[in-house]
Design goal:
Arc Repressor Mutant, subunit A; 70% helix; 10 helices; 246 residues; single chain; mainly alpha; Four Helix Bundle (Hemerythrin (Met), subunit A)
């Protein structure tokens, strides 16, 4: 194996790391273009293929978009949560994690968040959840109903005052949404009853948040997630995350 075959990818990663830090720190704002390739090649002392390999790394992370041609270049994008969520799903898939494990993790996080939301009882949070609950009152069943009910859970996570929990929850939600869409029945009497029951529970949770009952909200949400997990995973106890993406 030639030394150059080892050196080039390593250098490309170092360049990607340097540019990534500049983007994250805000030295290069979203929407701006990176310096021309010739300037970056001179600055880093590398060849064009090595620089373009670094670009491919950043492009795979959705941090830049590269346009070829005379007026082309690399435009900076703000890091997106959905990109992080996609990578989290890939890691869970690679590790052979079970769906039941992901749903349990989601429950642990959401129960803590909903208790905190009740303790704070923020009017802005209540207003946003109120809109979702009102929408749920207008659905019966079907794929749309599944998505709307999952949206309430996503909102619980998104409204957490803790930024780290919001990020981690967003990663998990990517898998949960896919799981609900793939596994949850969308037609028949049982599906209609499950939708009505879930919508009613969401309303009860919101009422507990309004009055600041953190313990009551946590207990209700614990039961709700246990029941919904049993319902969704009834025929997929041993399913893996990879099964969702086959």
């Amino acid at each position: 194996m030639e030394v150059s075959s080892l050196r080039e990818p390593k250098m490309a990663d170092r360049i990607a790391n340097a540019l990534r830090r500049m983007i994250i720190r805000g030295d290069i704002a979203p929407g701006m273009m990176l310096p021309p390739e010739s300037e970056l090649m001179e600055r880093f002392g590398v060849s064009r293929p090595t620089l373009r390999e670094a670009f491919r790394v950043l492009e795979s992370e959705s941090m830049i978009q590269v346009k070829r041609g005379v007026r082309g270049g690399a435009r900076v994008h703000r890091p997106r949560k959905r990109t992080l969520a996609r990578y989290a799903g890939l890691i869970l898939t690679y590790e052979g994690i079970s769906l039941a494990d992901v749903y349990d993790a989601r429950a642990s996080i959401e129960i803590a968040i909903i208790a905190e939301l009740a303790r704070i009882s923020d009017p802005a949070v209540i207003a946003e959840l109120e809109k979702l609950v009102e929408r749920e009152g207008q659905i019966a069943s079907g794929a749309e109903g599944v998505d709307q009910l999952t949206d309430f859970h996503a909102a619980i996570a998104r409204l957490s005052p803790n930024q780290t929990l919001r990020t981690v929850s967003g990663m998990i939600h990517h898998v949960i949404m896919q799981g609900n869409r793939s596994l949850q029945p969308t037609s028949g009497p049982d599906a209609e009853q499950a939708v009505r029951r879930a919508a009613k529970t969401h309303r009860m949770a919101l009422d507990l948040i309004k009055v600041g009952d953190a313990d009551g909200a946590a207990a209700l949400w614990s039961r709700h997630l246990a029941e919904s997990g049993e319902y969704v995973l009834a025929d997929a106890k041993l399913a893996k995350v990879v099964d969702l993406f086959d």
